[in-house]
């Protein structure tokens, strides 16, 4: 990844598994883009794409070709091919008869698609695989923010009808990209949120659910950017953490309670604070 970043081969819209980038940088990029367009008087709509089993669909031959296009050839490419090939899978079923548990296994079959989940290389391979996604999608109306397989399209236009038409076109581009790249988007689970200071109704996209809020990389984003839902979520987590800390302090010592505080309370209060920290005084007082 370091080699690819030095050569600027990793798309700037990708925030996953890249040095200096994280879920926080992805959230900030998304919110800044939305606020910039709202301040310009534009209508803006966000499409939060839902991939169906993204890591399991990728064909190994296509992965190899994608790596070649990034300059990963010869020995390095063969090493990746060797890592993916030669794997098998079985289906295991447990049955119980008269309190006796029996295990039944199918015959091993070769795995010809997908990257190993839970491995270090799995997410990296996926990031490299979808590195060209934004070049197929982005235009004057559409930009995207990506963190591994979490992909959001941002569509802007000066009219409500225009943003709907542009969003429909962008979604069709994404579906077309997925069709030729062994990926599958589930339109029924894809969520659309509209943002604007204007009160004009933005028409819905067919088969796409329109919501007023969505959880994006662990932060709850609402259509009015009030962050009330996010603050409520943080408050619940903090309340649970305080209860645990009180119990720990009662049965243990202060140092153990401090450790629990940093892991159960402060982490939740700090995460995404760069965006939801600008909420109303009333919301912030609820946390404090």
Automatic annotation (TrEMBL):
Pfam families in alphabetical order: RVT_1 (PF00078)
GO biological process terms on file: DNA biosynthetic process
Domain Reverse transcriptase: 1-221
PROSITE patterns linked to this entry: RT_POL
PANTHER family: REVERSE TRANSCRIPTASE DOMAIN-CONTAINING PROTEIN
Name of the featured protein: Reverse transcriptase domain-containing protein
């Amino acid at each position: 990844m370091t080699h690819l970043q030095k050569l600027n081969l990793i798309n700037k819209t990708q925030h996953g598994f890249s040095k200096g980038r994280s879920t926080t940088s992805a959230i900030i990029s998304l919110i800044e883009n939305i606020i910039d367009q709202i301040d310009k008087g534009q209508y803006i709509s966000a499409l939060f794409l839902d991939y169906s089993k993204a890591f399991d669909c990728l064909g190994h031959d296509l992965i190899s070709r994608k790596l070649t296009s990034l300059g990963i050839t010869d020995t390095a490419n063969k090493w990746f091919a060797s890592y993916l090939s030669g794997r098998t899978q079985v289906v295991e079923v447990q049955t119980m008869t008269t309190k006796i548990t029996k295990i039944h296994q199918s015959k091993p079959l070769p795995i010809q698609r997908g990257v190993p989940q839970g491995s270090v290389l799995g997410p990296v391979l996926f990031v490299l695989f979808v590195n060209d996604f934004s070049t197929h999608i982005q235009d004057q109306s559409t930009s995207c923010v990506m963190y591994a397989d979490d992909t959001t399209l941002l569509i802007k236009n000066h009219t409500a009808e225009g943003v709907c038409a542009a969003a429909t076109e962008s979604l069709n581009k994404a579906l077309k990209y997925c069709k030729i790249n062994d990926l599958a988007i589930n339109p029924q689970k894809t969520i659309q949120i509209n943002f604007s200071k204007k009160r004009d109704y933005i028409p819905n996209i067919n088969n796409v659910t329109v919501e007023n809020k969505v959880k994006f990389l662990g932060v709850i984003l609402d259509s009015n950017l009030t962050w009330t839902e996010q603050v409520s979520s943080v408050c619940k987590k903090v309340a649970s953490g305080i209860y645990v800390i009180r119990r720990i302090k009662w049965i243990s010592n202060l140092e153990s309670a401090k450790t629990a505080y940093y892991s159960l309370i402060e982490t939740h209060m700090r995460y995404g604070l760069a965006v939801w920290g600008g909420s109303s005084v009333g919301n912030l007082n609820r946390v404090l």
